[in-house]
Amino acid sequence: MVWHDEHRRNGTRTRQPRQLTPPPAQPGTSLPGALRTLHQRAGCPTPHSLAVATGNLLSADDVRKILHGDLHGTWEQVIALIRAMDGEPFQIAGATSSRS
């Protein structure tokens, strides 16, 4: 799952025995982090190409802001962005559990 990978990438694992379930999502940071990981897995497409891939539901500037956590798009926009990066919304289900 992308959420697991983001936590590993940020060094949140400890030297304690491996947990079977991920640590709880941190509000405000886990969704952008999971999206950034998905962005990297997609080959780091440009914000402009992602905006086009969403059918211009998002602007390139909005894509950039969402990936950096500076903008919380609507769920429709986030789903479009995930799919533009060849992802599926269930891939970041752990990260979205903290969204209000």
Task: Describe the protein in words.
Helix content is 50%, strand content 0%. By secondary structure, it is mainly alpha-helical. It has a single domain, classed as 434 Repressor (Amino-terminal Domain) (Orthogonal Bundle), CATH 1.10.260. It is globular and about 30 Å long.
Name the beta content range. Answer: under 5%
Helix content: 40-55%
The parts where pLDDT drops under 50 for at least 5 residues are 13-29
Give the tally of structural domains.
1
Number of helices: 6
CATH topology term = 434 Repressor (Amino-terminal Domain)
H-E string? HHHHHH
Q: What integer value in Å does the Rg equal?
A: 14 Å
Main beta sheet strand tally, sense and closure:
none
Q: Write down how many β-strands occur, each being a DSSP E stretch of 2 or more residues.
A: 0
What distance separates the N and C termini? 21 Å
CATH level 1 class label: Mainly Alpha
